[in-house]
Amino acid sequence: MSQEIILYDLPSQAPCRSWSGNVWKTRLALNFKGVPYKTEWIPYIRLQETIKSFGVEPHPPGSWSEFSVPTVRFPDGTYVMDSAAIAKELEYRYPSPSFRLNPKLEEEAHGAMGKVFMALAVPLMPYATEVVSLEDLEWFKTDRARRFGMTVEVAFDKSKDPVPHFVAAKPAFEECSRVLKAHKVDEGPFLLGSQPCYADFYFMTTLQMFHQSSKEGFALIMEYVPSELKNLFEACQKWTIKQD
Ligand SMILES: N[C@@H](CCC(=O)N[C@@H](CS)C(=O)NCC(=O)O)C(=O)O
């Protein structure tokens, strides 16, 4: 049995890089705590059967999928699926340094950043073709177009103008700014000020997903991202160095 944690993640096109926002929550958490781990890459087309074979409980009915990444295998052979459940387990097993779990803050961060994601998911969908691994690409296009009720041609039409969607996303970005200003106890780029906490990772990782996916798509977003969010994103960069 491996003495290291194994983090299951989605591969990308070459050079292989981590890009899923949900997996980044766990990757940042591991890097933040300095816990040794290695990544195993599972493509979408084998994800359900592979994670199921670990014996974890599926997500409840109505979830995005039954099985998902991030999933982690701890050195004692325990598997945990779902970024929030993994965060709790990491905080329990490796309490120092603490990322100060706070369900109320995490819910607020998730709510605000979730609105940004929903506003930008459709206009930025064509950029996903720059990152999704080639073996997954056809599956991904068909799956996402179906989920968003569109044809593949419309969902992945690169000539669509994304700017009106960014303008429509402004209230969601403003909500992020409000949340990021509301809880500071001192000066600093994080939600609480100078001290990072796990709720910060909800804000950071959606941007990180776009950052990892497409230079052009990311540059577009950054034109609309408020300074509070930009500062937080930059302050978290030190936990993005290990990606494998
Ligand atoms: N609530 C889960 C959501 C994880 C999730 O949806 N992961 C996506 C990748 S970003 C996934 O595994 N999707 C599998 C699929 O679409 O079949 C978490 O926070 O870990």
Automatic annotation (TrEMBL):
Coiled coil: none annotated. InterPro entries: Glutathione-S-Trfase_C_sf, Glutathione_S-Trfase_N, GST_UstS-like_C, Thioredoxin-like_sf. Residues 114-239 form the Glutathione S-transferase UstS-like C-terminal domain. It comes from the Eukaryota. Pfam families: GST_C_7, GST_N_2. Residues 19-91 form the GST N-terminal domain. This is Uncharacterized protein. It comes from Zasmidium cellare ATCC 36951.
